[in-house]
Amino acid sequence: MAKLEVGDRAPDFELPDASGRPVRLSRELARGPVLLVFYPGDFSPVCTRQLCSYRDSYDRFASLGVTVLGISDDTIDKHRRFTEEHQFPFALLADPQREVIDAYAGTGMMSGGRAHRANFLVGQDGRLAYVFVEKVSLFHRGADELYEAVRAALEQGAQAPK
């Protein structure tokens, strides 16, 4: 896996959401910037806290015109149950083959061989405007800190030229 950096073109992908509907990054970008949230797995204590904090701050991200997409290697069915239990307003995408995970966040021993916790903001131009990869799975970018990083990246021009 090559390390992605701010300014790199984001690899396009298509993954199913919790209802099985295909979600393609390039289609989502037509509406605005996309925040990709990679996490090790549904229902784990840290992942649940992380995604619930993003859920609770969802309106702040939406006010910036940002679409949030969560990605792990869990199944569509597990994502559906996790979404229903916690009422996530954003899509969780299933990547059981870890192709998108490997292209972006990678996997590691500290996350039990699963996805590193990572956040990638993709601007409407398809380029990465913000990159954060946490190698220690017990930690995650807090919602307030992530919101401020996304807001700052957008102010620096992550939007497509009008």
Automatic annotation (TrEMBL):
Name the PROSITE patterns on file. Answer: THIOREDOXIN_2
Which major enzyme category is it?
A: oxidoreductase
A Pfam family cross-referenced in the UniProt record is AhpC-TSA
The species this protein belongs to is Lujinxingia vulgaris
The record's note on quaternary structure and interaction partners says: Monomer.
Q: Where is the active site?
A: C47 (cysteine sulfenic acid (-soh) intermediate)
Q: Which GO terms describe its biological process?
A: cell redox homeostasis; cellular response to oxidative stress
Family, per the entry? Belongs to the peroxiredoxin family. BCP/PrxQ subfamily.
Q: What is this protein called?
A: thioredoxin-dependent peroxiredoxin
